[in-house]
């Protein structure tokens, strides 16, 4: 608003923000005006550039104002000798020496507080937590630092997220509480004359600057950023998969709507529209019809014009598998195969994972390992990587395996697989990255375990007013939990109860059950049958159509009118003692009057547990059935069998 | 500034006995007072502790509990005849109240020597579970710090946390880990199985706190003889219950922001009369902001409440403090009553936006010296009165045009703000809080930055820190995009700079 020449007083009256802050913002805007006024980089004086840096302008910001490149600004700035100073945090008013390794950089200083003779190894952290990148990458970062320190290397962490352990100054030799931008990382790397940089444990953010760092002579440890780029670019990636004989769904790079529609007509709907360089599926969508595709193309293509948009044949229904692995110079060291409970189409971050799987046969397990080996070799991977693979059993008994995604970095399931299998994948990866004490390859999946663990997503629907509690190709969960058990039913039983606001249905409580035309009939009937006949819950639906459908399968249900008024709606839930909601609809609600949206959202608003996927629903009702039987046969005072410590399950300690 | 570090001239061996003898005379009268009253608030206080499961002393850390707060103290001595005279309003009790207050005032600033260490060998730490909006990575950080502190003291630790992606769920930190739900049922099973001597409830966010309070109310902790380390349960209960909390702060003349839940127009008008206009009305059910609004007089409130109540069965009536500054203090207190404010923070945007969704700067930049010290003194008074043993966060609303202020909230546990304050100052709040829970005092703990001086210091920063939240609302359909009193951000970043401009732009 200052840019639009509002006065400080006007803004203060509108916002009540203290004028001190507004005057400071005014200072920033003034510098911005000065730079814009200079028009060209050559016209920017050393003093102005210095002033801009002191006011916190990044090279990229300055470049954007002057229509030049960040590298140009960086070069001019360094020629002027304008570089940041490294300071220790001083909280003692200089009364005592602040001998800390907690550092930051600033242009408002005249000396460095530290000497640069460590030549440590840099680890780039996860940056801000967001949907798709969260505490799991903090675990990866901290695991990498600890592994480096064990190997005797000096460590240097860069991260700027205050909610993390990686920004705890007792975890590393030097902590730079700094943003993970190319400019800052480059400054610190040059200043510290660091040995190398690990970019593969902090999620997508460090990965995004890897190639530029590499092009500017930064020593990136492990897999070459050129390979990373090949894997990130769907076109290059696909070409390599073709070369090594690994199957993938039919896809096409998109340049015009006509071509896209022609391609979709050829391979048949549904199709998946997706841009490259995404982490949790921004603008990604499944299109079931010609019209839906047309609409979505316009939305998806505007996301990242630098990277092309791709449409892929969407294989449905099919199972999805996550492979997490570590390789060394193209050779597979360890790998983990986790099975998704949900069908393909639910974002892997929102999926329920089972490890080790018991429903994949040895032959398929062997083929999965082979794919991992081929990919590791083709991309000359050193370090962590992750793949998502579609598994479809054909009527002829053949199993098709198609790779849909590959990231040459640690994925969000690394802590899960490490802790379930009792081998720290990041520890292995760090040794591979440093080319020190690299362990021999071992097939962790060949060892049979007497337990299974299930990872379940945690959503924050209650906080997001109005948001549709629906699972799709866009990731929506904010966290995850995982529990162990003697089998997946027991593990799921504890895991789902670990999620916020969840509780198991009370005996005899009413259950609202819903579906749409795409819901799997088998699943729906199985869930309704178990709930009604085995577990004795009265069933309710929100549409006569569903009630009739259930009646045809000899399942009794009552249709409820769901009124629009929230208060009346709450009354309907209360009157019918609705205690649990299963909504297994497959299509996203296009408007808020949609009965399935109303059912899902009401569950969240009224604090009633919701299950919104048909495969999860099946697993859940089966788990309830088994557990209710178990509990009834227990002697009083006996603890349920899932109440065991982690080391009792995995048979040892894990660091 | 260092007044509160001065130890009492003569070492006091047994803190509690001295204090208890001081307050002894008031107890019988107080009990009488209780029998007379039928105030609903008083009932609410008592219902959790039925006569069959009396509140056991053993479940409060002996001699580490709150001794400056009369209701907590009386709790200690009487089990079933406990009383809270200050909730009563008759004239007789008013006298007792002031008599009692005098005792409180006298004891408030005393520092005690020779606080015994808590005798525990095995401690269970309750984690926060899966990350969600409002309860995110900060609890991995605080839990990890707590476990590090316990480990350093040679105490064996058991951790319950189903969040498998965390750093705390590792045997490098905890001796034993349970990946199980943080619920009363599962914790009871684990406690019965492991039989720890102590439990830490303040490092796992709201989840751990709620479960801990329930475990106490159900008598599980006392049955198994498990000590609650650090801040006593009673203090946690008071800080969590709006009515109890408001009454407790009234006792020491600290103003509280009041919020009343009503379900009829008449009740709304009555509540507003008590609170004073202007009023803000919020609906108890999430309706996309429908039914919320401001009212400057009874007429406006009447029509607003009528509209809101047609949409939601319950509405909240609160005093409007539009345009007030929002300021937080992080305070630490040990069992010897040493008390410091580690950090204060100021929101860039005024009251109305959830702190989690606000741009926050540390230390505060726009407070006058008088304002700063007024709120600092109040924070210390509050934490001492409530009897927090460990870390505590106090949120204030401050009228920019006068010295008027109100306490919005007190979190008697580690919070997102405390994680931010730790990073902003380098002062490891969770680590220190865990050590304090074991009976260490601030002067004997080390300053983590210098490693040579004491932890009993108030950091003074020669830099400025800015935090900016991150939202991810584009991932959702039909979601309400306005920010307000309910937190929606999924993460945050912080930057350190030497001017506000630098620090703000670095984080941007």
Short description:
The complex is a heterodimer of chains A (about 650) and B (about 500). By secondary structure, chain A is of the alpha/beta class.
Structural write-up:
- The complex is a heterodimer of chains A (655) and B (508).
- In chain A, 38% of the residues lie in helices and 18% in strands.
- Chain A is α/β, with parallel strands linked by helices and 655 residues long.
- Chain A has a seven-stranded antiparallel β-sheet, with helices on both faces. In chain A, strands 1-2-5-4-3-6 form a six-stranded mixed β-sheet, covered by helices on one side. A five-stranded parallel β-sheet of chain A has the order 20-19-18-21-22, with helices on both faces.
- In chain A, helix 6 links the parallel strand 3 and strand 4.
- In chain A, helix 1 packs across helix 2, helix 4 crosses helix 5 and helix 8 crosses helix 9.
- Chain A starts with 7 loop residues before the first helix and ends in a 5-residue tail after the last helix.
- About 1% of the residues of chain A have low confidence.
- Chain B is of the alpha+beta class.
- Chain B folds into three domains: 121 residues, Rossmann fold (3-Layer(aba) Sandwich), CATH 3.40.50; 62 residues, Dna Ligase, domain 1 (2-Layer Sandwich), CATH 3.30.1490; 184 residues, ATP-grasp fold, B domain (D-amino Acid Aminotransferase, Chain A, domain 1, 2-Layer Sandwich), CATH 3.30.470.
- Chain B contains 17 helices and 16 strands.
- In chain B, the strands form three sheets. A seven-stranded antiparallel β-sheet of chain B has the order 14-13-10-11-12-15-16, with helices on both faces.
- In chain B, helix 2 packs across helix 5, helix 6 crosses helix 16 and helix 10 packs across helix 11.
- The longest helix of chain B has 18 residues.
- The radius of gyration of chain B is 23 Å and the shape is globular.
- The chains are: A alpha/beta (655), B alpha+beta (508).
- The interface between A and B is large, with 116 and 114 residues.
């Amino acid at each position: 608003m200052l840019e639009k020449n509002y006065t400080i007083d006007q803004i203060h009256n509108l916002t009540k923000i203290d004028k001190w802050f507004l005057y400071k913002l005014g200072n920033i805007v003034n510098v911005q005006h000065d730079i814009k006024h200079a028009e060209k980089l050559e016209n920017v004086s050393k003093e102005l550039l210095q002033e801009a840096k002191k006011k916190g302008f990044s090279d990229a910001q300055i470049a954007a104002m002057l229509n030049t490149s960040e590298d140009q600004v960086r070069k001019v700035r360094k020629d002027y000798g304008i570089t940041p100073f490294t300071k220790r945090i001083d909280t003692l008013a200089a009364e005592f020496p602040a001998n800390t390794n907690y550092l930051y950089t600033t242009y408002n200083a005249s000396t460095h507080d530290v000497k640069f003779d460590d030549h440590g190894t840099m680890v780039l952290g996860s940056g801000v937590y967001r949907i798709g990148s969260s505490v799991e990458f903090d675990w990866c970062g901290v695991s990498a630092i600890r592994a480096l320190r064990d190997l005797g290397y000096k460590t240097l962490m860069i991260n700027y997220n205050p909610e993390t352990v990686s920004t705890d100054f007792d975890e590393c030799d030097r902590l730079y509480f700094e943003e993970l931008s190319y400019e800052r990382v480059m400054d610190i790397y040059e200043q510290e004359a660091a040995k190398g940089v690990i970019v593969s444990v902090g999620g997508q953010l460090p990965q995004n600057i890897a190639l530029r760092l590499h092009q500017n002579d930064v020593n990136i440890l492990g897999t070459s950023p050129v390979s990373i780029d090949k894997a990130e670019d769907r076109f290059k990636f696909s070409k390599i998969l073709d070369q090594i004989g690994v199957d993938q769904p039919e896809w096409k790079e998109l340049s015009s709507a006509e071509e896209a529609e022609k391609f979709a007509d050829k391979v048949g709907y549904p199709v998946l529209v997706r841009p490259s360089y995404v982490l949790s599926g921004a603008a990604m969508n499944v299109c079931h019809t010609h019209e839906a595709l047309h609409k979505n193309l316009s939305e998806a293509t505007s996301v990242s014009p630098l990277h092309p948009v791709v449409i892929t044949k969407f294989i449905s229904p099919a199972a999805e598998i996550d492979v997490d692995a570590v390789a060394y110079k193209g050779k597979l060291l360890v790998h983990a195969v986790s099975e998704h409970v949900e069908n393909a189409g639910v974002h892997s971050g929102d999926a329920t994972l089972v490890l080790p799987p018991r429903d994949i046969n040895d032959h398929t397990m062997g083929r999965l390992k082979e794919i991992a080996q081929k990919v590791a070799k083709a991309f000359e991977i050193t370090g962590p990587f992750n793949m998502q693979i579609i598994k479809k059993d054909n009527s002829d008994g053949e199993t098709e395996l198609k790779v849909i995604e590959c990231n040459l970095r640690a994925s969000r399931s690394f802590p899960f697989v490490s802790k379930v299998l009792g081998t720290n994948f990041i520890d292995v990866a760090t040794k591979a990255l440093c080319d020190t004490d690299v362990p021999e390859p071992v097939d962790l999946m060949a060892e049979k375990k007497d337990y299974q663990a299930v990872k379940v997503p945690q959503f924050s629907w209650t906080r997001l007013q109005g948001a549709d509690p629906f699972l799709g190709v866009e990731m929506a969960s904010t966290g995850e939990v995982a529990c162990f058990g003697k089998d997946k039913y027991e593990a799921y039983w504890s895991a789902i109860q670990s999620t916020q606001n969840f509780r198991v249905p009370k005996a005899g409580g009413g259950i609202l059950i819903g579906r749409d035309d795409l819901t799997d009939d088998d699943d729906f009937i199985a869930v309704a049958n178990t709930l009604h006949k085995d577990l004795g819950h009265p069933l309710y639906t929100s549409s006569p159509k569903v009630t009739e459908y259930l009646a045809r399968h000899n399942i009794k249900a009552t249709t409820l009118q769901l009124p629009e008024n929230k208060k009346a709606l709450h009354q309907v839930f209360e009157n019918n003692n609705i205690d649990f909601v299963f909504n297994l609809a497959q299509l996203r609600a296009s408007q808020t009057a949609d009965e399935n949206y109303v059912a899902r959202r009401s569950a969240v608003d009224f604090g009633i547990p919701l299950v919104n996927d048909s495969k999860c629903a099946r697993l859940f009702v089966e788990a309830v059935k088994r557990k209710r039987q178990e509990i009834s046969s227990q002697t009083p005072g006996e603890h349920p069998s899932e109440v065991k410590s982690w080391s009792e399950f995995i048979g040892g300690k894990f660091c | 500034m260092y007044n509160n570090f001065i130890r009492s001239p003569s070492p006091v061996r047994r803190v509690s006995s001295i204090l208890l003898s001081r307050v002894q005379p008031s107890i019988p009268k107080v009990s009488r007072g209780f029998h007379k009253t039928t105030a609903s608030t008083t009932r609410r206080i008592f219902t959790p502790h039925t006569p069959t499961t009396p509140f056991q002393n053993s479940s409060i850390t002996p001699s580490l509990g709150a001794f400056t707060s009369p209701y907590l103290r009386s709790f200690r001595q009487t089990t079933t005849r406990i009383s809270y005279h200050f909730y009563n309003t008759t004239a007789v009790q008013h006298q007792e109240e002031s008599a009692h207050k005098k005792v409180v005032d006298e004891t408030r600033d005393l520092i005690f020597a020779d606080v015994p260490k808590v005798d525990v060998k095995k401690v269970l730490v309750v984690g926060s579970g899966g990350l969600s909006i409002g309860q995110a990575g900060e609890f991995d950080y605080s839990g990890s710090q707590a476990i590090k502190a316990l480990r350093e003291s040679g105490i064996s630790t058991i951790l319950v946390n189903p969040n498998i992606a965390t750093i705390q769920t590792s045997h490098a930190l905890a001796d034993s880990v349970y990946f199980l739900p943080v619920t009363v049922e599962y914790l009871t099973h684990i406690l019965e199985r492991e039989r720890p001597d102590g439990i830490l409830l303040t490092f796992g966010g709201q989840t751990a706190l709620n479960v801990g309070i329930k475990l106490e109310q159900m008598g599980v902790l006392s049955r198994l003889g498990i000590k609650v380390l650090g801040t006593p349960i009673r203090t946690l209960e008071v800080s969590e219950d709006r009515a109890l909390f408001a009454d407790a702060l009234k006792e020491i003349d600290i103003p509280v922001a009041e919020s009343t839940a009503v379900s009829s127009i008449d009740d709304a008008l009555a509540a507003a009369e008590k609170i004073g206009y202007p009023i803000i009305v919020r609906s108890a059910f999430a309706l996309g902001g429908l039914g919320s609004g401001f009212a400057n007089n009874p007429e406006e409130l009447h029509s607003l409440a009528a509209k809101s109540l047609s949409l939601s069965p319950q509405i909240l009536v609160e005093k409007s403090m539009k345009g007030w500054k929002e300021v937080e203090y992080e305070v630490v207190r040990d069992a010897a009553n040493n008390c410091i404010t580690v950090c204060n923070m100021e929101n860039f945007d005024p009251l109305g936006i959830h702190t989690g969704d606000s741009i926050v700067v540390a230390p505060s930049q726009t407070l006058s010296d008088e304002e700063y010290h007024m709120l600092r003194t109040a924070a210390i008074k509050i934490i001492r009165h409530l009897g927090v043993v460990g870390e505590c966060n106090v949120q204030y609303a401050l009228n920019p045009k006068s010295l008027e202020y109100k306490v919005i909230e007190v979190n008697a546990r580690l919070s997102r703000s405390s994680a931010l304050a730790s990073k902003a100052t380098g002062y490891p709040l969770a680590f220190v809080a865990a050590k304090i829970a074991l009976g260490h005092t601030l002067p004997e703990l080390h300053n983590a930055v210098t490693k040579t001086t004491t932890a009993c210091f108030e950091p003074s920063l020669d830099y400025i820190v800015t935090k900016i939240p991150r939202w991810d609302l584009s991932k959702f359909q039909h979601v309400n995009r306005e920010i307000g009193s309910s937190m929606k951000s999924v993460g945050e970043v912080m930057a350190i700079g030497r001017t506000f401009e630098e620090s703000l732009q670095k984080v941007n």
